[in-house]
């Protein structure tokens, strides 16, 4: 038996990177997973790989209409939600003097607004004992040149984790966060403008980790599964760092 047998999960931003790693792990543990993302081709690839174990819905978490469409699909299934992994988001480098209103609003709309309204719209569908896991970042306790807006958005996620855990504990719903460090994903490589810059970026990030390597989506998925499953039944309001010790040592 899998740890999520018979459960229904939603993974936003589940068509690549950390999100896709979690989708695969949830399916392997017996869950039916609703997978959202902005790229229809990638969603088709997820469906082709995982078949009837997933339901794919194209959607952008910064669009309230898209979120309504996602939750309409979940409501029509009639099983409610046992696990919500609010993962969609992203960021770009910008030094303080180069930050524009567009840069700021795009990051906050996706990372902060998208998380707020994903969780809000999920509330009526959450089953007793449901688990919410938010994707933060270890950068929420670190300083990173030219990454301040992204870091601030992830600090907001940490704050939401505590507040929502307190707010929902009476419903038996747990809220926790993961805080990944540098993880080998297309999104991380995509922070660099050119392939040779990406190689330098990834090498520099790995050198800054005590374990001297990047993490993998599978390693993050292990942590998310723990927080999503009954094994973490006495854990709420917590932030679990998956960063090779980068924020702790």
Key features of this structure:
seven-stranded parallel β-sheet, 2 domains, 44% helix, Rossmann fold, 249 residues, 8 helices, globular, alpha/beta, 17% strand
**Total domains:** 2
The coarse silhouette is globular
Counting H and I runs of at least 4 residues, what is the number of helices?
8
In this structure, how is the largest beta sheet organized? 7 strands, parallel
CATH H-tier superfamily of the largest domain:
NAD(P)-binding Rossmann-like Domain
Structural class: alpha/beta
Mean pLDDT: 95
Q: Roughly how many Å is the radius of gyration?
A: 17 Å
Give, in spatial order, the strands making up the sheet with the most strands. 3-2-1-4-5-6-7
Low-confidence runs: none
Q: What proportion of the residues is helical, as a percent range?
A: 40-55%
**End-to-end gap:** 37 Å
Share of β-strand residues? 15-25%
**Which CATH top level class of the largest domain fits?**
Alpha Beta
Under the CATH scheme, the architecture of the largest domain is: 3-Layer(aba) Sandwich
> Helix and strand string, N-terminal first?
EHEHEHEHEHEHHHE
The CATH topology of the largest domain is given as Rossmann fold
**Count of strand segments:** 7
Structure description:
By secondary structure, this protein is an alpha/beta fold. It has two domains: 8-180 and 218-241, Rossmann fold; 188-214, no CATH class. 44% of the residues lie in helices and 17% in strands. It has eight helices and seven strands. It has helices at residues 17-28, 40-50, 64-77, 101-122, 148-168, 186-189, 195-207, 217-228; strands at residues 8-11, 32-37, 54-58, 81-86, 126-135, 174-180, 239-242. The protein has a seven-stranded parallel β-sheet, sandwiched between helices. Strand 2 (32-37), helix 2 and strand 3 form a beta-alpha-beta unit. Helix 3 (64-77) packs parallel to helix 4. The N and C termini lie far apart (37 Å).
